[in-house]
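Work Package 3 (structural annotation) set out to generate three-dimensional models for the target panel prioritized at the project kickoff. During this period the team completed the workflow that converts sequence records into discrete structure tokens, so that structures can be stored uniformly alongside our sequence database. As a representative example, we reproduce one entry of 287 residues exactly as it appears in the project archive.
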Amino acid sequence: MRSVLVVGAGAMGSQIAMVCALAGHQVCLHDVDPAMLERADRELRDRMARQVEKGRRTADDVTAAFERLRVADSLAAAAAAADADLVIEAVVERIEVKSELFAELDRLCPPATILASNSSSFVPSRLAAATGRADRVCNLHFFNPALVMACVEVVPGPETSGQTVASCVDLVESLGKVPVVLEKEIPGFVANRILNAVRDEAIRLYEGGYAGVEAIDTACRTALGYPMGPFELMDLTGIDIGYLTKQARYAETGDPADLPSRSVTELVERGHLGRKTGRGWYTYEGV
């Protein structure tokens, strides 16, 4: 694939765009909020400067990548400028927002363009229903932080073509990532379903008064070999992300067991969303 359009300039979208630009692809990063684009550019340049200082990347490679990365706050302008072979959506985890976006992308993009979502909450068939190209819709689920994590889940829907899957696998490999291809769609896919089972049990232990947050995280790191505990990970990725995922799952199943937990709901209602707000399960200075 020659060119990629990434929609949504939050932490995931901006890093996915940078990964693609570093791999040699022409990239356009779109967000409706110009302030988000400015923040994304600033944070990416700071992160890349640190990597150059540490010798992980060369200054020439980083400069060339930024020359391949454009930004646009108009979706129509972004789609026209990118003339994308692939669109990767990374907006808020709300099905009505994503469906409206996919319908608009279906209208704006060339017929051959593949439309992919970074969501793990919504399966491809739900997003494809908003388009006239179900054979060219799938999920490309990157993990946070996208500049570091190797895995990308490639999730086809019932109507996704084999060529679309093959093209997405080629793209993932061109990024230096490892594609994990699912045989069929399921909400949460593979990694997050396993991760969510661990997270839910950690929350049950905490809410039941069996162990504190730090004790549970320490056990997971020192006994199970996890790089970070489940509460630390929720703070890193954003407590609101898991909260919205749970709400989306409940909306699909109607099973009260799929609702967000009491403690997570309380944190979200207080605006304590993890590292990005300075407080979640833990408190972070200087945020």
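Residues 14 and 40 are 6 Å apart (CA to CA).
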